[in-house]
Design a protein that fits this description.
By secondary structure, the protein is α+β, with helices and mostly antiparallel strands. The chain has one domain (25-183). The chain has helices at 2-22, 48-55, 66-72, 93-100, 178-183; strands at 38-47, 75-85, 108-116, 121-130, 133-143, 146-154. A hairpin with a 4-residue loop joins strand 3 and strand 4 (121-130).
Length: 184
């Protein structure tokens, strides 16, 4: 009887996980254990209700705040975990694999992949689409002494996305400059 209950529990857990993952939100809480090893930690958990509350403090008339207010109107959540370590090897390949396993499948596509063997750095940007519209974004930056995961859930206008750089714990990524660099 216990085996049967365990199987039912695991199946319900997997089903609820897959429904959760379909919404575009990644499970990144397994990274919480890294906070004890990190010298600096950023942990942002803004669900839809908190984002809408935050947007009320932004002015639609202020040229610096209006694009941010407009962009977050369609978002369901912003989730960021970032760790800076004193030593290399404080996070594992399994930590990264647990994230990458969630962004596989037909709705997720890697938009950018940068690898530097010299600096041992990896940067990946994944987009999630539904019915031809962007409904999620993941930025994964892995360096020897740093790990950052950004997960933005909801309707995303890529032309306005750069307005979120440097806000809500999202690092400066020079997203506006990226197309120019690609052309050069």
């Amino acid at each position: 009887m216990k085996k049967h209950q365990t199987v039912i529990f695991l199946m319900s857990l997997l089903c609820s996980y897959s429904l959760w993952a379909q919404e575009g939100r990644l499970q990144i809480s397994h990274l919480d254990k890294l906070a004890a090893k990190a010298g600096e930690t950023v942990d942002v958990n803004l669900d839809g209700a908190l984002l809408q509350t935050a947007s009320k403090f932004l002015s639609g008339k202020n040229p610096g705040e209006a694009p941010v207010k407009d962009l977050i109107a369609g978002l369901k959540g912003i989730y960021v975990k970032s760790f800076e370590f004193e030593n290399e090897g404080e996070y594992s390949k399994e930590d990264l694999a647990a994230i990458r396993n969630q962004i596989q499948g037909p709705q997720w596509a890697r938009m950018v992949g940068v690898r530097s063997k010299k600096d041992k750095e990896e940067v990946d940007i994944y987009l999630r689409t539904e019915s031809g519209k962007v409904s999620g974004l993941v930025i994964l930056c892995a360096e020897p002494k740093e790990l950052t995961v950004v997960n933005i859930v909801g309707s995303i206008d890529l032309d306005k996305l750069s307005a979120l750089e440097g806000q809500f714990g999202i690092p400066e990524m020079d997203l506006e400059k990226a197309p120019k660099k690609a052309k050069e």
